[in-house]
Amino acid sequence: MAPRGTNVIDEFVAVEELHALSPKDMSSLLQEEESLVLKLSSAKGVILTVDVEKLASCLPLHLMACVASSSNEPRLRYWLRSVRLLHTLSSLAHGYPKLAQVLLQDVKIRMQILDLVTYMLVVLANMEQEGRGGGFIAVLHAASVACSLYLLMAFISHDWLDIAHVLLDHPKVDVFMDAAFDVVKRDIVLLQVKLRSLSIKLSAKKTTFESAERVAQVTALQCEASLQVLQHLCVAPNFRDQVLGHKELCKNGGILKLVLAVLKLQLPPVFSNSKSLKATFSRSKAKALVMMLTFCESEQCSFLDEVAAEPNAMQLAEQVAHEVLLLVKGALLEDPRLIEDEEEEKKNPMGFMHITSLRLADIFSDDSNFRNLVMDQIAPDLASVLAVHPTKFQERWCGGPVARELAVGEQDASLIFDPFEAAGDAMAAAAKVGAGVCVQEEPCNPPDFQIIPLAATAHQTRAALLVKLFANFFCFNAEVCPADEKDRFMHTFLRYLREGPLNPSHPLFFLSYERTAVRICENLHTLYDYVLTLTSDTVVDDDLVLVSDFAEALHHQMCPSSVSVADAPLMSFVRDGHEQKLLQWKNEREQSERWNRLEQSRQSGNDEMAGAEVAVQASNESKKTEMDELVKVEEVPHTSGEATGHEIETTPFATMVVKSEGVDQHSIQHDGPSQGDVIALQHVSMKLENQKSEIETEIMVVHEEGESGSANFTEHEDAGRGEQESEGVNFGGMVTPASRRTSRDREPYSSEHGDESQPKKRKRNIMSDQQVNVMEAALQLEPGMQRSPKLIQQWTNHLNSIGPEVAYHQLKNWLNNRKARIARQEREKQRQEEGDVLVTRSEKSRRARSVASDDMDSPAEASSRLKDYDIDQGDAIPLKLSLQVSRTPSNAGSDGEPHNSSSSLVKWKVGDHVSLRGKDAEEMAVGIVIRVEGSWQGHILEDESLCLVQVSELKVARTTKLPFPSSKAGSSFEEAETLLGKTVATWDTEHMCMVATTSTPSLV
């Protein structure tokens, strides 16, 4: 440790003598010596010499050895002094390049620091602490944890995102995570025990209030600092996802245990007047809530779904939700704090505790696992919110002075943690004399904060979140909610209104039932009018529509009707005044551009509903007709060629007879059919019978959907339109209807969904129909978009410019869900195809002869249709062959050139190579069909006989006008390429011809 000829000391003496020196004091001593060797006098008067460079290089390993050797209280005090000295040396190194090279630039030292921090957290998390929380171990333990965690910032980086990446590369990162969450949770528990102990001592007058408050405040600040480290680390997406992938923390409830411990922190009544302790507790709860919110919004996986899968974790989550809703109750009903001095307020910022609890309530209420729990607990508070005096309601929820006071009262701040000062305060607070009375040797340094400025819209946030709660509760999603939960919120809310504000004994009851109901209804409409003026970034359109529907439904359920007050003139006057006010508000809303847009969207949705009902009826009739036209398998007599007169030689065997409109009735008869042929035909007979029963079931289901006014029929119709059309199967020259999707393949749906007072099914994302259509078109051009973060961000920005705000992770989740849905549909389709009957060689030869004899096809086409199947080798041909391209002999080409085929005989599909013709039949371009269904730039492709084609070769000038121009896709080929990045055009199928090709050009 020191040069020869001087007093050589060990690390223990160095730590005891040097830990109290601040970086400034130690720097002054080094400047006097002009080297990295310190000379100082010990408490016993002995001159000591310390080589700072050598001490810095061996101190991490020395401390790790000490941690491994002992875990009693005196050693805990020594650990804290050693960590404090490490922080001092780290600060000192910035002014001494030689010391910086040893401490901050040596990879070996940095790895030792990472191992030291991880090992200290593991040991501190497993210390025997039972029964000792009332002593001073609580403050020392909390300080050791906090100062150890901040070693990462001292030696690794000052950016927590960089620290998170370094930790992820460490082989013991999972051990670090587990220990960090566990040890901070233990500190929170020790803090609560310490507060009870101090409260008892104050009651027994064994200590002074100032000393007790100092110990409590120092301990609470150390816990807040540790929570802040975890919060900063979890901001990094990769670190957060790693935590969610940790079974102990996610599925076994490690995260929830920490959050629950923080939310259950209670300040004893004896400290109720301590502003500093109140603020510290509020900030700590805010940090825990923010961390919980971060996990719930993760893009990698659904935290709440993972928790719901484990019974123990789900029980913890329900307890957390209960604590969150207690804070929500305060956010909804508590009066704002009296702020006398804003500068004094900045010394004790409260954090976003209430606002973050409302955000979490929004997430819980939108999750099917927690929706009912949150609804039952929060509905009484929502009833009380709407029942207050209209003036008070507007002041609190409509941007009034109370709303601004509440925003100022929740000033968010980040704790500026100084490990050297914090360790000194902890050791001073832990000093004991006599009978355990704490002696304050010097005043505790007040904490410093980095105040986060309030946003200009901070006073609007509460109103926006209140609207989200009403929207989430009123929304009914038939895909995730049982049918019996429809209108559950309305019934629950009305019940709590009758038990609460509408009850004459309730403080918020106003003169009569009718007047109280009118007040509640008008307050809700006032809230709607206010949030209607906010930006779509604050409140999305879907939530506004749902709240509007809820207000209308509540009005009809609760407010007096003309019949109920016919015999009461006074109540009739109240009702008439209320109706006039609602009408006046509606007239004023017509001046709002956003309201008009919402009404147009709502009207468009109603028109689609009406069209869907017509389509359902037409589909029902079509299905019945198709069922009657199914190919029937009958046993008919085989007539021998030698038979004459009435003498007929009959041989019973299965023969297919077509009874279909538009096709000549004929039968295929063969002498001596093979056994395989008979088995195959019997199989077909069984399958057709099953198909008939399935269609009957499907007709019944579709009929129910049509009567209920299903809002999602259009989507189902688009998905299965190709299957509903008459796309036949060519089997031995006979056309049979193709198999259809059965009712078992449909998404679960409730027939009760069509109630006019209930909003249409709300999807879990917040994208409008226009945004969904834009994304569907974009995915035709960029099918691998979900693998490109850059593309996702670009399209997120574009979607936000044309509709409601969509976050990056929401768009990514939508892309992943869409991909999974398509994969599921493909699997179902594959299973159906695997169940189709395979035809043997003899059947294929008969099919070939029948195809050649069909008057709709030429021999060349028959050969082309079957060229992909090796008939001579006896390969089986799938039963479901479609009339993809049926041409007349006069139009059929022979050399692979485009054919002018009738569009009514062509079923275009994605990937077809086509020639685009103008009105004068001139070829304008060659391209590939990329979309045949859905909507594009205001056109319904299948209804208007249009296809979306990506041009691969242009035959005319780039400035040539498109037949279907638009502002988004351009009016010419050149503009389309400029706006979309690729030349994409909408084309009439009547002017499209199939192109024979041997290769598929890339769409990239």
UniProtKB/TrEMBL annotation:
<dbReference type="Pfam" id="PF24426">
    <property type="entry name" value="HTH_NDX"/>
</dbReference>
<dbReference type="GO" id="GO:0003697">
    <property type="term" value="F:single-stranded DNA binding"/>
</dbReference>
<feature type="domain" description="Homeobox">
    <location>
        <begin position="758"/>
        <end position="825"/>
    </location>
</feature>
<feature type="compositionally biased region" description="Basic and acidic residues">
    <location>
        <begin position="742"/>
        <end position="759"/>
    </location>
</feature>
<feature type="region of interest" description="Disordered">
    <location>
        <begin position="707"/>
        <end position="768"/>
    </location>
</feature>
<feature type="region of interest" description="Disordered">
    <location>
        <begin position="824"/>
        <end position="869"/>
    </location>
</feature>
<keyword id="KW-0238">DNA-binding</keyword>
<dbReference type="InterPro" id="IPR039325">
    <property type="entry name" value="NDX"/>
</dbReference>
<keyword id="KW-0371">Homeobox</keyword>
<dbReference type="InterPro" id="IPR057287">
    <property type="entry name" value="Ndx_N"/>
</dbReference>
<protein>
    <recommendedName>
        <fullName>Homeobox domain-containing protein</fullName>
    </recommendedName>
</protein>
<feature type="compositionally biased region" description="Basic and acidic residues">
    <location>
        <begin position="714"/>
        <end position="724"/>
    </location>
</feature>
<dbReference type="InterPro" id="IPR001356">
    <property type="entry name" value="HD"/>
</dbReference>
<feature type="compositionally biased region" description="Basic and acidic residues">
    <location>
        <begin position="824"/>
        <end position="834"/>
    </location>
</feature>
<feature type="DNA-binding region" description="Homeobox">
    <location>
        <begin position="760"/>
        <end position="826"/>
    </location>
</feature>
<dbReference type="Pfam" id="PF24679">
    <property type="entry name" value="Nodulin_C"/>
</dbReference>
<dbReference type="InterPro" id="IPR056559">
    <property type="entry name" value="NDX_C"/>
</dbReference>
<dbReference type="InterPro" id="IPR056560">
    <property type="entry name" value="HTH_NDX"/>
</dbReference>
<dbReference type="Pfam" id="PF25246">
    <property type="entry name" value="Nodulin_N"/>
</dbReference>
<dbReference type="GO" id="GO:0005634">
    <property type="term" value="C:nucleus"/>
</dbReference>
<keyword id="KW-0539">Nucleus</keyword>
